[in-house]
Amino acid sequence: YIIFLNCFFIFSSHSQIKCWRNSEGIKECGNKIPPEYSQKASTELNKSGVVINKLEAAKSIHVISEERRKTKELQKKIKADMTLLKTFSTKTDLILARESKTQQIDKEIQLIKSRIKVLLTNMESINSRISGSTAMVEKDLESLKIDLQRIDKQISESQNFVSTKEQEKRIIEAQFEKDIIRFEELMTQNK
Question: Is 167 helix (H, G, I), strand (E, B) or coil?
Fold first, then answer.
C-alpha cells in the first residue's frame, strides 16, 4: 500500500502538462518546456486539461530598463513633492520666493544695463576724439582703436549676460508656476 502511494505521488506530480508556443507560433504541450522556449509565456494544465497556472514571458532588457527609468522618475517626483511641501507652507510663500528671485535677477540686469550705458558713453567719447583730431599721432590713433575694440567686446559680453539673465528669469518663473500648480494639487490631496 505504501509503495502504491509513493508511485501515485510521483505520477501525480508529473501529471501536469505544460504548454508553450514554438518559434513558428504553434502551440506545443509536454511535461517539460524545452530550454529555448523557457523564457516565453506558458500555461500549466492538470491531467484533466484545466489551466492551473499561467506564466508570463520573461521581460526583455528593454522593458526592464524602461521600468527602472519610470521607477527612478517616480522616486524623483516624490522627492520633489516632499521638498516642495517641506519648504513652503502656503501658495503665498511660493509667490514670495519667486518674486525675491526674479527681483534679484532684475537688479543684476539693471546693473549691467547701466554698465553698458557707461561703456557706450566711453565709446562715443573715443569716437569723438578720433574724428575730431586731424593731427593725431598714429600711435595714439591705434591705441584708441584698440580701446574701441575692447569696449565693443565688453558691451557684447554684457549684452549676452543680460540675455542669459533674462532667460534665467523666464526659467525661474516657469518653474515656480509649475511648483505653484503642483503645490495646490498636493494641498488638495492632503485635505
Answer: helix
Residue-wise over 33-54: b if at least 16 C-beta within 10 A, else e?
A: beeebeeeebeebeeeeeeeee
CA distance 181 to 81: 12
Q: How many CB atoms lie within 10 A of CB 18?
A: 19
Take residue 105 and report the three cell numbers written for it.
535677477
Helix (H, G, I), strand (E, B) or coil at 129: helix
Its pTM stands at: 0.62
Rounded Cα distance between 99 and 57, Å, is 54
* Residues counted in the chain: 191
d(CA 28, CA 42): 10
8 A C-beta contact, residue 115 and residue 158: yes
Summarised one tens digit per residue, pLDDT across range 60-78 is 889 899 999 999 999 999 9
Q: What is the pLDDT of residues 19-36, one digit of tens each?
A: 999 989 899 988 888 999
Task: Note the helical H segments in 61-137.
Answer: 61-87, 91-132
